[in-house]
């Protein structure tokens, strides 16, 4: 009993430390949030389980048993959810409609257990209290089948991505998690098999130990992946954050999908001005969608290390300003691009240009995209307007500037320093 209690407290401590650690690394990414919830859920169950096995009497043991079975029933579902995010190239493009179907079985199984349909009673053993239920119990067998399917499913997803990784770094990150999940899955299957042997020792002692070795290896595996291969890490450390915060221009730290992972106070004020709520992507703040994606993709393929984009801020009901986005790729220790630093410098020449020729903010948006090589169809999609409206804006721009083609538009943009020579 003392051994069980010690193992429970150690497992709870590991879970709590892991939950806090991943949120400190990055509290905005979905994978970090899901893992933190998983670890906290496991911590609660370990604490409840400790109270359960050390209960002084039957009624107290039954109470703590009912307390722990409901959160414990969510283990496999959260593990599968975590695996789905872990193997995805872009966690925001997951099949979100599947999520309710992942958690619904666990919810129903937990509810049935709380009502005493699957775990009917508890009894005392030399190693503490143990669950009592008939091996022929319908709800118990259904619970076991669902748990095994979810556990094996999450392991197979990780194994699949390990065999076909996006990169060598991703493969290294998945290796300790795959092995730890394999240990947990084998432990789970063995514990269920031993439950049907009818042996009191195997049903109580082994099942209790198996309970602790199902999830704890996964927590340890994730911690190894974080420490050694920087899993779930694209957040600046404290000193880098303080340095970026001191820059008197909007600075954004992006992941390779263009999502803003960190911003300094100036960038926060700019997002607030544009009425953009966190979390957000750089393309929801500036008109730079396809151009930004192309720059980041070129970095991934080694065709680009940095660039500059001329953009305007997205404000429908407020005066819009023009910015130059200076983009610089960020590499990890194995020379792979994991993100980008983006500094937004306000262009002072635009306001005089607009005032002199009477160019509206929307026409400025069209002008930038036009000289960047976008077709009318692409401009319409980028600005969410019709192609006819784009043509109308082009006609107005040409009339106001006294030109009649895109080459002259590009030249006059260079003349008034609206764009730089390399654009």
TrEMBL record:
It comes from the Bacteria. Signal peptide: none annotated. Pfam families: GerE. InterPro entries: Sig_transdc_resp-reg_C-effctor, Tscrpt_reg_LuxR_C, WH-like_DNA-bd_sf. SMART domains: HTH_LUXR. GO terms for molecular function: DNA binding. PROSITE patterns: HTH_LUXR_1 (PS00622), HTH_LUXR_2 (PS50043). GO terms for biological process: regulation of DNA-templated transcription. The chain crosses the membrane at residues 6-23, 30-53, 68-87, 94-118, 138-159, 179-197, 209-229. Keywords: DNA-binding, Membrane, Transcription, Transcription regulation, Transmembrane, Transmembrane helix. Residues 352-417 form the HTH luxR-type domain. This is LuxR C-terminal-related transcriptional regulator. It comes from Candidatus Thalassospirochaeta sargassi.
């Amino acid at each position: 009993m003392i051994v069980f209690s010690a193992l429970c407290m150690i497992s709870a401590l590991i879970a709590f430390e892991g939950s806090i650690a991943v949120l400190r690394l990055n509290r905005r990414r979905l994978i970090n949030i899901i893992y933190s919830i998983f670890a906290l859920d496991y911590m609660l169950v370990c604490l409840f389980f400790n109270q359960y096995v050390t209960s002084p009497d039957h009624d107290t043991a039954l109470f703590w048993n009912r307390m722990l079975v409901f959160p414990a029933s969510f283990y496999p579902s959260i593990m599968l959810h975590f695996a789905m995010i872990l193997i995805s190239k872009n966690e925001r493009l997951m099949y979100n409609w599947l999520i309710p179907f992942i958690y619904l079985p666990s919810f129903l199984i937990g509810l049935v257990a709380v009502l005493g349909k699957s775990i009917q009673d508890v009894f005392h053993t030399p190693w503490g209290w143990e669950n009592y239920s008939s091996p022929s119990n319908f709800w118990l067998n259904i619970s076991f089948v669902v748990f095994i399917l979810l556990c094996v499913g999450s392991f197979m997803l990780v194994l699949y991505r390990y065999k076909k990784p996006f990169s060598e770094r991703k493969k290294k990150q998945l290796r300790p998690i795959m092995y730890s999940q394999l240990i947990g899955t084998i432990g789970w299957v063995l514990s269920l098999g031993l439950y049907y042997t009818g042996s009191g020792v195997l049903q109580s002692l082994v099942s209790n130990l198996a309970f602790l070795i199902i999830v704890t290896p996964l927590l340890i595996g994730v911690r190894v992946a974080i420490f050694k291969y920087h899993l779930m890490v694209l957040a600046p450390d404290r000193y880098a954050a303080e340095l970026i915060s001191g820059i008197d221009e909007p600075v954004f730290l992006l992941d390779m999908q263009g999502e803003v992972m960190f911003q300094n106070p100036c960038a926060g004020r700019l997002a607030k001005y544009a009425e953009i709520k966190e979390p957000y992507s750089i393309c929801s703040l500036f008109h730079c969608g396809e151009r930004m994606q192309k720059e980041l993709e070129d970095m991934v393929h080694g065709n680009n290390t940095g660039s500059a984009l001329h953009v305007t801020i997205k404000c429908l009901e407020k005066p819009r300003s023009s910015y130059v986005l200076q983009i610089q790729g960020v590499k990890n220790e194995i020379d792979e691009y994991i993100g980008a630093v983006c500094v937004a410098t306000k262009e002072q020449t635009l306001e005089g240009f607009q005032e002199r020729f009477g160019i509206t903010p929307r026409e400025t948006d069209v002008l930038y995209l036009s000289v960047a090589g976008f077709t009318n169809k692409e401009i319409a999609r980028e600005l969410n307007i019709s192609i006819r409206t784009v043509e109308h804006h082009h006609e107005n721009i040409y009339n106001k500037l006294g030109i009649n083609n895109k080459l002259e538009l590009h030249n006059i943009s260079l003349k008034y320093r609206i764009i730089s020579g390399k654009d």
